[in-house]
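Hi support team,

I've been running sequence recovery on a batch of backbones for a student project. Most finish fine, but this one hangs at about 90% for roughly twenty minutes before it completes. I'm not sure whether the input is malformed or the queue is just slow. I've pasted the structure tokens below so you can try to reproduce it. Let me know if you need the job ID as well.

Thanks,
M.K.
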């Protein structure tokens, strides 16, 4: 008998929780902890801009880059390729 684990991200179970001013989740397959806490929310007429600090226990920056937010933290508006 061969047991094949599904490594896709589509159907993995996550436990969600709220803590203080933020929301988080733990992926039960990978053990990844994801936590988000709001920093700013700007509403101008019909335009809405939200900025959150996000912690991802599996996040690492590409070589040569450093985060001003702390180890494994980033702003949700930051994108890396």
């Amino acid at each position: 008998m061969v047991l094949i684990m599904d490594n896709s991200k589509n159907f993995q179970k996550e436990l969600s929780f709220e803590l203080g001013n933020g929301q988080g989740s733990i992926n039960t397959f990978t053990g990844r902890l994801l936590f988000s806490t709001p920093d700013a929310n700007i509403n101008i007429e019909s335009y809405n801009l939200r900025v959150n600090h996000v912690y991802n226990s599996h996040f690492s920056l590409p070589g040569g880059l450093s985060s001003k937010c702390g180890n494994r933290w980033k702003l949700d508006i930051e994108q890396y390729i």
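--
Follow-up from support: It reproduced on our side and the slowdown came from queue contention, not your input. Residues 1-5 have pLDDT under 50 and may be disordered. No action needed from you.
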